[in-house]
Amino acid sequence: MPMDDFRARVQGWPEVLACYAMTGEMDYLLRVQVEDLPHFSRFVMDQLLRQPGVVDVKSSFALERIKDTTALPLTRVHPA
User: Fold this and answer.
1) What is the distance between the alpha carbons of residues 49 and 47, in angstroms, rounded to a whole number?
2) Contacts of 44 (CB under 8 A, 6+ apart)
3) Alpha-carbon Rg of the chain, whole angstroms?
4) pLDDT of the chain, 80 residues: tens digit per residue
5) What is the pTM of this model?
6) Which of 25, 38, 63, 67 has its CA 20 to 30 A from that of 76?
């Protein structure tokens, strides 16, 4: 099944930091880290677009990191 194969291949791509199954017009959202634009181009052309079932890629680039955290906003429970 192409989706299972895609999910398995994503696990082996070091450029992929996160992969999310999505609702709406896109099937997956990938967060990737690359050295530069030529590296991104190679990743898209040589890896992503060669996967069965991948017919289109839409990309956006972050211009500036404003906030990037993994901390959860946990609240403290105060004893009575």
Assistant:
1) 6
2) 57, 59
3) 17
4) 778 889 999 999 999 999 999 999 889 999 999 999 999 999 999 999 999 889 899 999 989 999 988 888 887 777 76
5) 0.78
6) 67
